[in-house]
Design a protein that fits this description.
Order of helices and strands: HEEEEEEEEEE
Largest sheet: 5 strands, antiparallel
Distance between the termini: 61 Å
Shape: globular
Strand content: over 45%
Radius of gyration: 17 Å
CATH topology: Jelly Rolls
Number of helices: 1
CATH superfamily: Jelly Rolls
Strand order of the largest sheet: 1-2-9-4-7
CATH class: Mainly Beta
Number of domains: 1
């Protein structure tokens, strides 16, 4: 019975459970962009993960069948959810349920850099822009 915990510790400590491993610092813009740059990190039928840089804003939109989880890595922004507004900055975690209208206005001199996790897999077809 003592062998099983040892094997589990070895598996976890060697990262054998992880199919992909990346350092946040590895994700840097590799091209010029005017406002938004999106890099896909991972995607399967259950989830999609992106690193997103925003210099100015994201127009109001909603996702019909997706929940989006956002971790702010750099920058500061005003985020609107339906009729509510909040300020987000490095270290903040935001959940955006499906059908929630959301928009972003960057407040910092540096671009907003976020990790966006969307479930289920996001292929872009359910993003609806609104006025």
């Amino acid at each position: 019975m003592k062998i099983i915990p040892f094997i589990c510790c070895v598996i976890v400590s060697t990262g054998l459970w992880a199919q992909t491993k990346s350092a946040i610092s590895d994700f840097q813009p590799d091209q010029d962009y005017d406002n938004i740059l999106v890099k896909k990190v991972y995607s399967d039928t259950h989830t999609s993960t992106f690193v997103i840089w925003i210099k100015k804003d994201v127009k109001p939109h909603k996702h019909i069948k997706h929940t989006e989880q956002v971790l702010v890595l750099e920058g500061k922004a005003n985020v609107r959810f339906d009729d509510k507004e909040i300020i987000v900055q490095k270290g903040d975690w935001v959940t955006i349920p499906e059908q929630t209208i959301h928009a972003v206005k960057v407040l910092s001199k540096i671009p907003l850099k976020v990790i966006s996790v969307q479930t289920p897999e996001f292929k872009g077809e359910d993003r609806v822009f609104v006025e």
